[in-house]
Amino acid sequence: MLTNLNKILSDARKGGYAIAQFNFSDLEVAQGIAEGASEMGSSVIFGASEKAIEYAGIENLVDIVKNLSEQFSQIPMALHLDHGKTFEICQKAIEAGFTSVMVDGSKHPFEENIKLTRKVVEFAKGKDISVEGELGMVADLKKLEIDKDAIVFPTGEQAREFIEKTGVDALAVGLGTAHGLPLPDERIHFAVLKEVADAVSAPLVLHGGSNLPTFDVKKAVKMGVCKVNVDTELRQAFTGAIRKDLKDKATLDPREYLGDAREAIKQAVIRKIKEINGEH
Length: 280
Ligand code: 13P
Description:
Blueprint: H1 5-9, H2 12-15, E1 19-23, H3 27-40, E2 44-49, H4 50-56, H5 58-71, E3 77-84, H6 87-96, E4 100-103, H7 110-124, E5 130-135, H8 141-146, H9 156-166, E6 170-173, H10 190-199, E7 204-206, H11 214-223, E8 225-230, H12 232-248, H13 254-277
Parallel strand pairs: 1-2, 1-8, 2-3, 3-4, 4-5, 5-6, 6-7, 7-8
Helix pairs in contact: 3-5, 3-13, 4-5, 6-7, 9-10, 12-13
The chain binds 1,3-dihydroxyacetonephosphate.
1,3-dihydroxyacetonephosphate is lined by residues 23, 82, 179-180, 207-210, 229-233.
């Protein structure tokens, strides 16, 4: 069943659990995600970034997830734009069939971020599309290496005002985690999370969800994180499986190594869902 974030996340904060967003840009990764989530009986969010859209073509990404949602009809699934930087890309995703978008105005000043985000919320209104906004900053690995002080943490008051003025359905909060392979001092700033979680009741989103200590992920979920974004751990699983096959087997058949990589994605998805929510 293809649905939006609201339906998937509606009970998450009260229930103290989170749903994983797994990013994809091709068929095999998407199939592995669906198979893993289905085996766990868990709802799942497919994340597609602007780069994934450029790579695969927006219609192909939509068709892949639509087909999977019919094949695995017992599992609620959402197709979510990850880090849409402009109104235009959010509009394009919604018109193409995405059920949810993230508008990332975090590089803009606070008021500009509110303006851009509200514009997307207004466009999405009445279309059964959910919108995630971002406050603070999820660091980019390379930029963070240059300037660690560039991380800006949001306050509870900013989060409350942002949600009130924009009407977003979910809020990504810059908590000190980064996209990509782990940084030496990357960690979740729990004091920031507590302040924001105390101030707002909306589902909170943790970006940079790969390779964090399991204890920290579970603690963040108990504190109000309802959506954990994962990309790098799937890349590691997929690429690792292909590397191994190409080293060990004299194969010319992409179905052999892509099939093994798809299975590696399925196992990584199962591991991650267990990490986030225990066994259920
Ligand atoms: P990772 O690179 O840590 O998996 O984070 C992915 C992410 O947050 C996508 O929005």
